[in-house]
Amino acid sequence: MTAANFERALALALVHEGGYVDHPADPGGATNLGVTIGTLSDWLGRPATKAEVKALTKATVAPIYRRNYWNAVRGDELPSGIDYCVFDFAVNSGKGRAIPSLQRALSVADDGKLGPLTLAAAASKDAGQTIERICADRLAFLRRLSTWPTFGRGWSARVEGVRAEAMALAAFAVPTVSVETKPLAPPAPRNSGSPVIPPVPAAPVVQTGGLWSALKSLFRKVA
Hints:
- The chain has helices at about 5-15, 35-45, 50-55, 60-70, 80-95, 95-105, 115-125, 125-145, 150-170, 210-220; strands spanning about 30, 35.
- The chain is mostly helical.
- It has one domain: Chitosanase, subunit A, domain 1 (Up-down Bundle), CATH 1.20.141.10.
- It has a two-stranded antiparallel sheet with strand order 1-2.
- α5 packs antiparallel against α6 (about 95-105) and α5 packs parallel to α8.
- It is globular.
- The protein starts with a helix and ends with a helix.
- About 30% of the residues are buried.
- Residues about 175-185 and about 205-210 have low confidence and may be disordered.
């Protein structure tokens, strides 16, 4: 549950998305670093060209991923591991698929509205179990697509990679610990003049000679 996870999630997503492609079987058309020509057109507010899609870099696509996908699934507010799992699903298939899948995994109403109830359920339930359920649901959805014969192998590898990485993020998440602190006791009052120097305890004095003389005197009186 940390904004820092976005950088990691984006880097992992871009590995799966790859570079520029324009596959005739891909309904998204020209795509580079996972950003389709349609997505780029929406971002620019005008029709984008294939040349502009080819020119995309990791730096230029990061804000698109942040607004369109990470923020859309409220990644900063989801538990670590679940944030990446839902984010990558949204990147691959849209938030309209990813959010209801999260909700089904949490056994809450899958209305596609990621609000306080969904966030509370995500925080209270086992992250590993939630991740497993989302990935299983995601794979089942992909298998139903007509393009599964063409892209199924790659999709399966991607979902398995997401599952493994999400589990690792969840396992290494640092829980928030509330530590109760008490104010320090105020220092003891002291004079404004010379500094107070604590006295040095005197070493014990053993007078063996005086003791022996007293004992001898006592013995003489007894005798």
